[in-house]
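Example for tutorial group B:
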């Protein structure tokens, strides 16, 4: 999937209307700055403590981010904070509109985020996150649409990570409104741990991950021709394997000159990791744990997080049925 032309802002909050006509890679940082300057953000991405825990034998590592303010974010609130009329009525948070694969979208600073220029990209129309809410005949088209859109976000925001949590069981905290996340890696991140796992295998259209003990979770990397179709086949096979319990995490980012899509297999029965508050999402399954609960931060201060503990935590959310996918 070669790099293509950008996506431009069509409409914006009157306070930042100079962004209209600007490409998304210029608009997102400006949006983030506007909310930061206005005091809307609960975090400073440059001051979030970042830790690396590694294994000397395998040279693998995981990343830990400590963001205590994130624990105050809304979880399935009565009024959806992603609905544009709610944002406009509140009068504080800035917003912008653009089209993503011809679908009207709203860009919002993630005020409880954890990455530089972290933004939430939500559908302008209020609709559920999961394609499972749709008629069976419409699920495959929506899976492909989701994969195209997350790929597109990675293309028009080079240097960013784009990700999608398919359901509440895979970390979507606002599952009543369909949305993506985008953000830049913290300085010094390097490749994500899941990327390093895939890099240990020969390049291919479909690269399995975790099935041979090379990663604590099972999934696959997709790139090259027919990326979306092959990744959608993989997701559909997973849904046939475990039925209604199936869910996934999707991560997309540019590798070289192409977008790579990572799909991590999850189920509702294996949503919790021991020692981690809440449901791990895409960043956790990519090997970056975002810690915000008091007991998590205490364990971090006491150095009770090491490489093997994180591996074990992520293994807690690996469904045993995933082994059936190869």
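The residue assignment follows.
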């Amino acid at each position: 999937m070669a790099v293509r032309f950008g996506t431009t802002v069509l409409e914006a909050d009157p306070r930042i209307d100079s962004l209209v006509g600007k490409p998304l890679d210029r608009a997102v940082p400006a949006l983030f700055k506007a909310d930061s300057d206005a005091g809307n953000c609960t975090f400073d991405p440059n001051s979030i403590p970042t830790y690396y825990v590694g294994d000397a034998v395998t040279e693998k590592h995981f990343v830990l981010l400590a963001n205590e303010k994130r624990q105050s974010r809304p979880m399935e609130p009565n009024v959806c904070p992603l609905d544009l009329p709610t944002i406009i009525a509140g009068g504080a948070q800035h917003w912008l509109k653009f089209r993503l694969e011809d679908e009207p979208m709203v860009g919002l600073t993630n005020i409880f985020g954890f990455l530089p220029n972290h933004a939430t990209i939500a559908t302008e129309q209020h609709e559920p996150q999961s394609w499972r809410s749709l008629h069976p005949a419409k699920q495959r088209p929506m899976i492909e649409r989701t994969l195209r859109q997350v790929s597109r976000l990675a293309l028009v925001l080079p240097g960013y990570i784009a990700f999608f949590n398919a359901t509440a069981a895979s970390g979507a905290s606002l599952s009543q409104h369909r949305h993506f996340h985008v953000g830049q890696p913290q300085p010094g991140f390097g490749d994500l741990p899941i990327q390093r796992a895939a890099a240990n295998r020969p390049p291919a259209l479909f690269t399995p991950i975790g099935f041979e003990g090379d990663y604590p979770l099972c999934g696959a990397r997709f790139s090259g021709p027919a990326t979306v179709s092959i990744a959608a086949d993989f997701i559909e096979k997973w849904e046939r394997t475990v039925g209604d319990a199936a869910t996934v995490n999707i991560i997309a980012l540019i590798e070289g000159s192409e977008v790579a899509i990572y799909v991590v297999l999850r189920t509702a029965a294996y949503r919790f990791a021991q020692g981690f508050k809440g449901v791990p999402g895409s960043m956790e399954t990519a090997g970056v744990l975002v810690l915000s609960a008091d007991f998590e931060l205490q364990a971090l201060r006491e150095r009770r997080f090491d490489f093997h503990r994180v591996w074990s935590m992520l293994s807690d959310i690996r469904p045993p049925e995933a082994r059936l996918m190869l």
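The mean pLDDT is 94. Compare this with the pattern of hydrophobic and polar residues in the output above.
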